Amino acid sequence: MSRTPTPAALSLAALAVGLGGCVINGDKYPRPRDLEPSTYVHKLRLLAIATEPPELRPGESASVSALLVDPLDQVSTTVWVACDGEDVTDFGCPFDPSGLDGDPTPEQLAELGVIGFEPGFPPVYTAPDDALDGLEGRDRLEGVQAVVQALALPEQSEDTDDFDFNQVESGFKRVVISEDDTPNLNPTPGDFTADGIPIGPEDVIEFTAGQRIELDIDLEPAVETYTYVNTDGETETRTEEPFITWYTDWLQVEQEVTLYPDTPCAFTAPRSAPDVEGRIWAVIRDRRGGISWEIRRWRLVEE
User: Fold this and answer.
1) What is the C-alpha R_g of the chain?
2) Poorest-pLDDT segment among 33-47, 133-147, 238-252
3) Who is most buried in 101, 147, 165, 229, counting CB within 10 A?
4) pTM of the model
5) Are 254 and 265 in contact (CB under 8 A)?
6) What pLDDT, on a 0 to 100 scale, did the predictor assign at position 27?
7) Which residues of 119-211 form beta strands (DSSP E)?
8) What is the C-alpha separation between 251 and 125, in angstroms, rounded?
């Protein structure tokens, strides 16, 4: 469990998250219309959290991962915690970092709700055996929700006065625990294409200055049909309607979100010197808690 954060660091991180909704001296900050587009990623951003699988039965476990973009290599440790969905606040799971003082045992970490540290201790969430106790019939099929949360912490000096709250990135995801006959799966899309040409994970999309290229992801293989018991107790067959949220660094994006089945999104390269390069991130959500993502590299070349 290398590079474990100190309790002071975690306390500060928790405070930073808690202060997220408070604005002091609001006139000092840009107004919404002056903010950068949400598609533009050039600093630490937590774009998505996924569990595999996204829906569990009591006693089952899921691996947890995050799409954490850290272009300045700021993050030293990511702390993962989990809690019952009824306990979560607007800022995530209640968490007391003082319990991390010393060298806690795995059992003590579990009591704190800690499910992982990265690097060194990959996060795994296990649904409680009694998660559905007290529920019957339709309620057991619909299930309950748990929450997994990531706290990405920057390297910090011993002097806590130097701690930069703006460098802490936090986010959480809800996990369904149920006995549904058609549990949700994470989206598994088909080809990623650039102007209709398949682009593999190791390929690079080449732009010339000012060029516009239409990117797309084939979501047809990812669309699931599932059963749902409505409030009248009737079983319905439904089909997912996934969507893609697009992000990049230096490219211009025409649409932040594209909805299935109309999922193409156009990107335009900057009008600057060649050898500029970057990345494109596409987060796919199925509206039931299933999440996956695709990452591609791009570069600017001579015409």
Assistant:
1) 21
2) 33-47
3) 147
4) 0.84
5) yes
6) 57
7) 124-126, 144-154, 169-177, 192-194, 197-198, 204-207
8) 36
What long-range pairs does 265-268 form, CB within 8 A, spacing at least 24? 265/214, 265/215, 265/216, 266/212, 266/213, 266/214, 266/215, 267/207, 267/212, 267/213, 267/214, 267/215, 267/298, 268/210, 268/211, 268/212, 268/213
CB 300 within 8 A of CB 275: yes
pLDDT at 75 over 60: yes
- Delimit the domains of the chain by residue range: 7-177, 192-300
Q: In what helix (H) or strand (E) does residue 18 lie, and over which residues does it extend?
A: helix 7-18
Domain 192-300 fold: Immunoglobulin-like (2.60.40)
Q: How far apart are CA 248 and CA 212, in angstroms?
A: 14
Question: Is residue 170 within 8 Å of 91, Cβ to Cβ?
Answer: yes
Residue 150 to residue 123: CA distance in whole angstroms: 10
Of residues 181 and 102, more confidently modeled:
181
- What's the pLDDT band for 47 if we cut at 50, 70, 90? very high
The amino acid sitting at 151 is L
CATH of 7-177, one of 3.60.15.10, 3.40.50.300, 2.60.40.10, 3.90.700.10: 2.60.40.10
CB 147 within 8 A of CB 85: yes
Taking a C-beta distance cutoff of 8 angstroms, is the pair 289, 240 a contact?
A: no
How far apart, in whole angstroms, are the C-alpha atoms of residue 128 and residue 145? 11
Domains 7-177 and 192-300 share a fold: yes
Query: Within 10 Å of residue 202's Cβ, how many Cβ atoms?
Result: 7
Burial of 184 (C-beta count, 10 Å sphere; 0-12/13-18/19+): buried
* % of the chain at pLDDT higher than 70: 83
